[in-house]
Amino acid sequence: MAALEIVLVPALSDNYVYLLHDAGTGATAVVDPGEAPPVEAALAARGWTLTQIVNTHHHHDHTDGNDALKAKYGVPLVGPRAESARIAGMDVMVGDGDTVQVAGHSAIVYETPGHTTGHVSFHIPDSQALFCGDTLFALGCGRMFEGTPTQFWKSLSTLRALPSNTKIYCGHEYTQSNARFAVSVDGGNAKLKARAAEIDRLRAAKQPTVPSILADEFDTNPFLRADDPAMAAAVGMAGADPIAVFAEIRKRKDAF
Ligand code: ZN
Ligand code: FE
Fold first, then answer.
1. What's the whole-model pTM score?
2. Looking at 58, 62, 119, 123, which residue is catalytic?
3. Cα(211)–Cα(206) distance, rounded to whole angstroms?
4. What is the DSSP letter of 172?
């Protein structure tokens, strides 16, 4: 089966909604529709019909389009079992280790708490694609609204272990500000500085910086490197536990 065609749909101020389309069957899923109109426009422009909605977490900028799209297309909503009280209208509830069909392709579900307690991420191996909502961002990670550093570091460690060529489809275009922060804590990282320059070039040309590649995140995202001695030393915590280093980097980003 050919890889899914994946379309970025900018929504709200800085969200990315994704359309996942299987050209063979016509199956088309939407991930995290924070609003319906741009999704409807993107579908119409391609002559596609929506067949499924998928949510990573309960925040409104990822779910507010659910009802309108369900009403218009009559399609099922897939989301995290742990959020049955906070996401209305779920038809299929998933949790850690489940396999669920997304646009007819097998997706492995990982529970990735930290940004929210019930957050899940979807890995679609045959398309080398990860949909991780607000858990992992290009050069960053989500704010720790509900989880603990222990949970968040475990979640990021789980995602980091996926194949290094995995494309990271995250929930927001935050990369340029993430890059400024990353350089502030890891300015000696030559790969990071080169990536930050490339991001500035892309944004100056009004191009998306998403998806990124997991291998690049591994080398340049400070939140994925909390167990790297060089990263610990860079924040003055040589020899400290990775969870403590992660918590410190997250705290600094909140205040940046
Ligand atoms: Zn969120
Ligand atoms: Fe969000």
1. 0.98
2. 62
3. 15
4. B
Of 21, 119, 123, 172, catalytic: 172
| 58 is annotated as an active-site residue | no
Q: Of 222, 244, 215, 82, nearest to 139 (Cα)?
A: 222
Q: Which of 21, 32, 58, 59 is catalytic?
A: 59
Class of domain 5-254: alpha beta
CA separation for the pair 131, 95 (Å, rounded): 15
pLDDT value at residue 216 = 98
User: Residue 1's pLDDT is what?
Assistant: 74
What is the tens place of the pLDDT at every residue in 214-239?
Answer: 999 999 999 999 999 999 999 999 99
Chain centroid to CA 202: 19
Report which secondary-structure segment, H or E, holds 143. Answer: none
With contact defined as beta carbons under 8 Å apart, do 185 and 76 qualify? no
**Would you mind telling me the total number of residues written for the chain in this entry?**
256
SS3 16: strand
What's the pLDDT tens digit per position in 55-103?
Answer: 999 999 999 999 999 999 999 999 999 999 999 999 999 999 999 999 9
User: Which neighbouring-strand residues pair with 15?
Assistant: 11, 172
The domains of the chain are located at: 5-254
pLDDT < 70 regions, the chain: none
Which of 249, 221, 220, 255 shows the shortest CA–CA distance to 233? 249
- Distance (Å) of CA 186 to CA 28, 139, 189, 235: 40, 12, 6, 8
How many whole angstroms from its chain centre is CA 131?
Answer: 5
> Is 123 a known active-site residue?
no
